[in-house]
Amino acid sequence: MPLTELVIDGFKSFAEKTTIHFGSGITGIVGPNGSGKSNITEAIRWAMGESRAKTLRGDNMKDVIFAGSEFRKPLNSAEVTLVFDNKNRQLNFESDKVSVTRRILRSGDSEYLINNQSVRLKDVRELFLDSGISQNSLAIISQGRVDQILNSRPEDRRDIFEEAAGVLHFKKQKEIANAQLDKTNQNLVRINDLVKELE
Length: 199
Ligand code: ATP
What we know:
The chain has helices at 37-47, 121-128, 145-150, 154-165, 168-198; strands at 3-9, 18-21, 77-85, 97-105, 110-114, 117-119. By secondary structure, the chain is α+β, with helices and mostly antiparallel strands. The chain has two domains: 3-153, 3-Layer(aba) Sandwich (Rossmann fold), CATH 3.40.50; 167-199. The protein has a six-stranded antiparallel sheet with strand order 2-1-3-4-5-6. The structure holds adenosine-5'-triphosphate (ATP).
């Protein structure tokens, strides 16, 4: 499921629409300090559903929108698209090519698209679950993340192994099913109370 293309438009320092093509093998991105190398990995993380502004070195999610420079006015929106080769169906989606787009406006409105169809954040997260590249995986290691992992609680570290083993997906489904069971039990208690009142 290689990432073949990344399109960044209005995200952080990328005021101009920029397309990066990834060939087979290793791609190295080089540039002077502050030229935007980390912004590229953050664009990937953001498009995959990152919801913590701090992880993207901001205070607010709107901080990802190009804030202007000496020569350019600030922009009103940011958009990032990831294109994956899905011929091996590693992503749970019936298409040889899968594109995931995230868009944000200065108003704070946000939108996700899979193959140009509007979807929920939940759908994007589910698409990447068990793919090995989901939000908390080690596919993207930012500066300082190694220390963070080494110092993390054992339960958090266990999530990393569970994702690699492919069980995280089932664990999440179990959590949802348990929450529904709890709700149903509460409803049953309420019904019993009402029946008793009516008797
Ligand atoms: P280093 O090698 O020092 O780690 P880098 O190449 O990884 O640097 P980044 O940290 O990706 O560089 O980019 C930092 C640049 O992005 C800074 O110049 C910063 O002003 C710019 N930047 C960040 N957010 C925005 C934004 N919302 N609008 C405009 N520019 C931004």
